[in-house]
Every structure is written in structure tokens, then in C-alpha cells.
Amino acid sequence: MPKIKTKKGAAKRFKVTATGKIKREKAYAGHLFTSKSKDRKRNLRKADLVSSKDKQNIRKLIPYK
Fold first, then answer.
1. Number of Cβ within a 10 Å radius of residue 40
2. How many angstroms separate the first and last alpha carbons of the chain?
């Protein structure tokens, strides 16, 4: 059976932790910062975990990570 190709766009966006959870960066942190509060901007800097529903689909995109 042939190997599955990794979706390179997904590989650049997601990292797998040692316990098997998938880390992601938060959205809406690219521009237009003057309209966002200080607390909101600080919260956007932190990484987040992918929800359990999305995890199943993302594992198919990055099978060897």
C-alpha cells in the first residue's frame, strides 16, 4: 500500500504535542490592531488546541506528524 502524502499547508499550520493533541495558532492576529483591545491582542498571541471534532480531519492531513 502506498504512503499517504502530507498536506504541506496543514503541516506548516499544525504541530502535534507529545500527548497527541494538535496545537494551532489563533486567527485574526494579522493586521488591524488599533481596533482590538490590549487584552484581546495578548490572548491572540497564545497558541491554542484544536477541538476534538476537528482533530479527526486534521490527522488525515498530517498522517506522519
1. 12
2. 19
